[in-house]
């Protein structure tokens, strides 16, 4: 889980660095000058989409781990037989 959170944080900083340092991104969104505030707003709009896509894979991974834990607990738990 910590690894997934670290990857998300890394992607977030990478995407912000691209938006902040690339004037072509600002121009493509209709701004003509570099501004930290505008870069932050564009970053959050782009990160919203990226976060949605990352959550699909994160949720699938977490669900897989939960199923494995359920199988393990079912295997280790003694079952009562009905008489």
Can you put this structure into words, describing what you see?
There is one protein chain. With 83 residues, the protein is mainly α. The two termini are 43 Å apart. The protein has one domain (2-68). Helix 1 (2-21) runs antiparallel to helix 3 (36-76). The protein is rod-shaped. The chain contains 3 helices and no strands. It has helices spanning 2-21, 23-28, 36-76.
| Structural class determined from secondary elements | mainly alpha
The shape, in one word, is rod-shaped
Succession of helices and strands: HHH
Summarize model confidence as the mean pLDDT.
Answer: 84
Number of H- or I-type helical stretches: 3
| Strand proportion | under 5%
Provide the gyration radius in Å.
Answer: 22 Å
Helix content range: over 70%
Low-confidence stretches: none
- First-residue to last-residue Cα separation: 43 Å
What count of structural domains? 1
Key features of this structure:
about 80 residues; mainly alpha
Helix and strand layout, with pairings?
Elements: H1 2-21, H2 23-28, H3 36-76
In short:
This protein is mainly alpha-helical and 83 residues long.
